[in-house]
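Posting this for the archive.
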Amino acid sequence: MSRWTKLDGRTAWSYLTMILFRAAAVAVLLSVIAPLPLKAQSYPTRPVTIIVPSTPGGGTDILARIVGDQLAKQLGQGFVIENRTGPLAGTAAAARAEPDGYTLLAGLNANMAVNPSLFSKLPYDPIRDFAPVAMLANYPFLVVVNKDFPAKSIGELIALGKAKPGQIDYASAGNGTGQHLSMELFKLMTGTNFTHVPYRGAQPAYADVISGRVSVFFDNISAALPQVKGGSVRALAVTTAQRSPVVTELPTVAEAGVPGYEYHTWFGLWAPRQTPRPIVELLHGEIRKALAVPAVRDRITEQAGEPATTRLGEIEPFVKAEIAKWADVVRRAGVAVQ
């Protein structure tokens, strides 16, 4: 006699109901889980847009195109650069995009770490609205001075800043820019007082550093190095934690007298927060492969950059630490944007 004939009608119905319920639950679970690997396996099936929140030809744009071109070769679909002038509008547009892996954001210090402290009503949140995909590259800054400026080292620069508080000017490409904040961090860490002279971009700033109207400029190595090599300005140090392979003879600011000082421009790619994890992981792996391609590495190092090696799980903690770091600098230095 089967076990079912031993059961009364009510008990048999209970067993049957339980079995059907469990089968339905498994089916629902599989319907949720199964599409995720499939999405990653079939992705991408059409071109991917990379929003660059700046004009064509800038550092973010060039780097996004270098990596995008290689990703297109690896994945068989185009990676199209869409320039949206203005870090607020472009970044906000990326945050609102469909989280399907077909819209990515090229981000950097400014829009992903500094803007939360500079703008009280930011139209996006770099942590809440975005999922990190991969870091791309890091670019040191150089500390440069007018060629006739008396300081020949970071130690001498600090000594002059303390001996003549407020009497030595430094240039920047505008309030809240990396050129501004890197020097404000230097001032806070050294107890010096230099006077900020903001310009509308690096080129007019260089004109006045070269002429001697201002004395000091912290600027991206890709823009500063040609000026140094041409003899227009002198370089005192690099701002990264380690020496740059491009100018190994220059000490870091930290080893030249300011322990713990570090500044560099970093670039990465982000996706809207709800982008499926398998797609994010696939892109991360492909980008790491792209950065290991000799031609890609060469193009980045030609711009005096260093390809990033940051792992996926390290990106968000790093960005959170950067947000906190620059929030403190902005507050203590009283930095404001118009």
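Confidence is low (pLDDT under 50) at residues 1-21, 23-38. The first helix runs from residue 9 to 33.
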